[in-house]
Amino acid sequence: MTEATTTDAPRDGRVPVTVLTGFLGSGKTTLLNRILTEHHGMRIAVIENEFGEIGIDDALVLDAEEEIFEMNNGCICCTVRGDLIRILGALMRRREKFDHILIETTGLADPAPVAQTFFMDDEIAAQLRLDAIITLVDAAHVLQHLDEVKPEGVENEAVEQIAFADRIVLNKTDLADEETIAEVEARVKAINAPVQILRARNAEVDLRQILDVGAFDLDRVLKDDPSFLTETEHQHDTTVTSVGIELDGEVDDSRLNAWLGNLLRTKGADIFRSKGILAIAGSGRQYVFQGVHMLLMGEEGAQWRTDEPRRNRLVFIGRNLDRDELERGFADCLATAGAAA
Amino acid sequence: MSITTPDQALSVAWEITIDDAPVALSARGDLVAVAGAEGTVRVLDAAMGAEMGALDLPSGALKAQLSPSASHLAVTGPMGYALWRRADGRVIVRESGAWSSSAAWANDERVAIASGRTALVFDADGEELWRTEPAASTVTDLAWLRRGRRLAVAAYGAVRGHERHTAQPVVTYPYIGSHLALAVAPTEKWICSGNQDASIHIWRTRDGSELTMSGYPEKVSRLAFNDTGFWLAADGAPDLTVWDFSGKGPAGTAPRQLRCHETITALAWRPGAAGHLASGGHDGTVALWHATGGQPANRLRPVRTLDDVDSAVAALAWAGPHLLITAHRDGRVRAYGLPSRTAL
């Protein structure tokens, strides 16, 4: 974190929120206990969906029961978590300031409504920042969850939780052999190519790697492992995969809006997450966006340096992704595209 | 203590500070109750601001409701509720566990309190009389109709009407959406819900016919009818909207738009039929309006604003037509005296 990257967007004072997902037995409670007991000097509020018995003096722990609400905005996949809206709303009215909020979901929870809650409620969006979705994976047992065949129309929760993750904590590596671990990592990367995997035993991870990491910090993620950008294997695949695009040039604002708007409107149900850092023609600042299904939130990021190439980077994670179509669609958004055609 | 403002028409009658961030005010009879986010609750004498009672809800408070003659106080919060009796200053019911969004008094003898997905009805001694069957999700708001014979319960997906001592609803007003606030017109002709999806949904009680006011920029979480039931004020945008519910109702009409606050954090009608409304904003400003003046679709300006407190307005309440109570996030609770019934 010492390196000053171009994506060091100005801190906005909003309280970061970490979402902790993972199957029962993946080590969420152990990790939560670690976060609450380690001397990090932060005041943390925890919203628990799984009724653990955590009582720590220095943290506020609130119980919640998952309540998924549909939104009447014509967006078929747009659901939010009513319980979180209520609880976060009450937390924000307290005088005591929390440095961090942690939401622990149940093992079978769909991360989409959790993430969408941060897009759909203005009060929450103004005061809280979804920092990262952290998914715990049990190295010894996750393959059987991933391979579980679900009835038509029912999502495999393990796949979803991996697809939505900004960081994967690959836990219980002491209980799996190296061959299994390698296979798990390959499977995770096949679903969510840009995700960073942290190996752990007994949920022992550096908390700086999971708290306040800035999932918008796509730049660093791509720098770590840009290989998936050129990967071309799965083109029409019903399994969940990632498509990364990297293209130099300046993007025309209105073409981008038309393309991205149409893409998410028509394919949003299949696109779990989208993220990007773009160079918009006429703007000296990066445009940083991230989306969950059909919802998209964008903001200005860091200033482009004068000598820096205007490089656009996007990632889509989802089902039935067509790399060629996505690449062509985005290339047409470049400000120079019209002249070339 | 009396701080006189330059304008003699309005003066600060009293001011106190509580050691909490207020979230709710209730003013009934000669009392004012203030509840804080961390659960501090104070009962004050409306005229002087003197403390008349105190209780705590350890896990925090969301709402406070005094009974009509101020004989009892119900306080609800994220992890439970409490019922306080003035006669002996005791908490006669205290329950913790479930989310308790709101309480509603039918009269001094009957209070409904939301607890998780259920609403419970207690008598003046704190005895539970009956409860509703669980709704589909956590109850968000409650209101009484028919002089306390019917209880309206709002939760995700519907507002349900329960007759006394009847767990099952006798009438259901469905609407797929998260109902954040419920308002029943004093005429009982209309039931309205403010919604997470940035709309107001309206049912005519006579036949259940529906109407949706959509297109608000933000969720609608505050709704209030004035005393006559002819006017509904709502948040959901930088503009407060005031809808005309007289005659056939607001279908096809445009609301008055009240522009003052960037973010509306409180609203309260002045008792009476004059159409006077108080609103509060995130920047600490309190605005007083003749909210029913002008023509439909008019954008109105406040009659006056009070802006010497730079902490967000947390709640507003009228202790009768001559006393406006304001609570700010920094803990300040203030009473403004308004001598004239007709002027603001």
Can you characterise this structure?
- The complex is a heterodimer of chains A (341) and B (344).
- Helix content of chain A is 29%, strand content 27%.
- Chain A has helices at 28-37, 82-92, 111-120, 122-127, 142-147, 157-164, 178-191, 218-224, 253-267, 323-331, 337-340; strands at residues 15-22, 44-48, 60-63, 68-70, 79-81, 100-104, 128-138, 167-171, 196-199, 240-248, 271-279, 285-292, 295-303, 311-319.
- Chain A has two domains: 15-215, Rossmann fold (3-Layer(aba) Sandwich); 223-340, Hypothetical Protein Yjia, Chain: A,domain 2, CATH 3.30.1220.
- Chain A has eleven helices and 14 strands.
- Chain A is globular.
- Chain A starts with 14 loop residues before the first strand and ends with a helix.
- In chain A, the strands form three sheets. Chain A has a seven-stranded parallel sheet, with helices on both faces. A five-stranded antiparallel sheet of chain A has the order 10-14-11-12-13, sandwiched between helices. In chain A, strands 4-5 form a two-stranded antiparallel ribbon.
- Residues 1-10 of chain A have low confidence and may be disordered.
- With 341 residues, chain A is an alpha/beta fold.
- Chain B has 344 residues and is mostly beta strands.
- Chain B has a single domain (3-337), classed as YVTN repeat-like/Quinoprotein amine dehydrogenase (Methylamine Dehydrogenase, Chain H).
- Chain B is 0% helix and 51% strand.
- Chain B has strands spanning 3-4, 11-17, 22-28, 31-36, 40-45, 51-56, 63-66, 72-77, 80-85, 90-96, 103-107, 110-115, 118-122, 128-131, 141-145, 150-155, 158-163, 171-174, 179-184, 190-195, 199-204, 210-213, 223-225, 231-234, 239-244, 256-259, 264-269, 276-281, 286-290, 299-300, 304-306, 313-318, 323-328, 332-337.
- In chain B, strands 1-2-34-33-32 form a five-stranded antiparallel sheet, with no helix packed on it. Chain B has a five-stranded mixed sheet with strand order 23-24-25-26-30, with no helix packed on it.
- Residues 1-6 of chain B have low confidence and may be disordered.
- Classes of the chains: A alpha/beta (341), B mainly beta (344).
